[in-house]
Amino acid sequence: MTSNTTNNMFVPQYNILDDSAVQEKNAPVSLVDKCPKVIASFIDTYGYKPDFIAHSPGRVNLIGEHIDYADFSVLPLSLERDMLCAIKVHDLKENNNPSITLANKDKQRFAGRKFDLPLDGSPINIDPSISDWSNYFKCGLYVAQLYLKEICPEKYNVQPLNGMDVFCQGDVPVGSGLGSSSAIICAVTLGIIRANMGHGYRIPKADLLRITSVAEHYLGVNNGGMDQAASIYGQRGHALCVSFKPELKATPIQFPTMSLDWDIEFIVADTLVEVNKYDTASTNYNLRVVEVIIAANILAMHYGVVMNYDLSSNIRKGNLRDFMNAYLGLHRSQVKFEINDSIESRINQLELMLQLTEECLGDKKNGHTADEVSKALECSKEEFTREYLMLFPIRFQMLKIYKRAKHVYSEALRVIKTLQLFEETNEQTKTNNYTFYHQFGELMNGSQRSCDELYECSSVEIDKLCEIALNNGSYGSRLTGAGWGGSTVHLVPNGPNGCNVEHVKNALIEQYYKLQYPNITQEVLDNAIIVSKAAPGS
Length: 538
Ligand code: NG1
Ligand code: MG
Description:
By secondary structure, this protein is an alpha+beta fold. It has 18 helices and eleven strands. The structure holds 2-acetamido-2-deoxy-1-O-phosphono-alpha-D-galactopyranose and magnesium ion.
């Protein structure tokens, strides 16, 4: 079938998610383009048409780095890069031996797979020790099946799921911190639910987030749920405020409108330096996690408060958010501001935490030794080692408690100030608010400085990309994701003819990519720079 006929045959309709996406009458431009292609590939592979397409995007974090594991809100955005799964459900009559066939557009990296579904409705087996793309599919399948058992126990506790043929087509770069794994998991989960519950069933987004946020745990990844929240709740023209306490949720916040012929876009530029976040010899994501847990416990000891934390978490120690809540609970009557959820109060709370950090930890700005930490925690070195240093494999010379805590509280404060900026600008209902973007850019730059100087998670390559972008018209430039390599994000105004975006993009190509990687191919370059507005979610 030619792409012309497929073009006419597919009219995207939203009919499974319960809220915003359903109301969106027109499909996003990028999907109008991609859907006919995935349908054509499906037909090429299987010889017949799919029943439907499930879709979920990747994400970039705009501000709020390395604070999700301290339970402070972060501000990601879903990208116009996504995973599409075209699916044909097998005829029920032929379903006495149900199976799933998987094909992927990128056959080279992701070869075809086929597996049977247990006949008695028991869950599929996932082996985290093998690294295969079908494991992500299986994670989606697994949590979808648990959900189906929850809503229709009489059926799904005894019956197998429907068999199906699947064709996956994704353009979220894999392994550069843009949420490719959650894009596939969310798309698959939706697809499985639709394939079994049929066309009329609508899953609430909150349920989809609840079930997918833990899906990667079956592969041994203890992620926090920011990626899935962004993928599911994405909305055109909106960033998302993902918060973790009292529960995981994502609230869309609208970007202020610009004048008619100006628009704002984000450039996401990959350093092309791949990092193994969990490598103890180099970057040490886990060391940061341990340092901020220690910081929370030293603060709690110093100020005589008892932290109240989630016992179900695998780190039963309390974090910097737990310390803040415990401290404010104890000193409610002494603090000079009202404690509530308003932006003003949250700013006051975080400013107070920054003061306490100075007061309690500021005499050791360059770090604590293990002996000094044990003393501050009033425990023996053995106890300290057992309780804190065995949480994850880590190596260190000094524990940079002060710097890490200062980053977390100041970064959480920058997120709140960004929210405040959105709120104030939207209230003014100005249509042409460049001040907003300058101030937002400044906060992004502040985040980058803090990641560099206090959290020490930037790199020469990240710094270079940010410098070039800022010198060529970006309002704000910073690393996104864990850092030490991976991707950067740049806030860029897009004028008539796309002049500024093109200008920044060309500068990055000429001054970074071509110098750093003289033999870079066009294909690698095309994948390294993504220009995207906020895209709709699953
Ligand atoms: P990336 O590098 O985008 O996978 C990681 C963590 C996030 C968050 C950021 C830093 C994983 C799977 N994700 O993101 O939860 O902590 O670093 O803000 O490790
Ligand atoms: Mg991931």
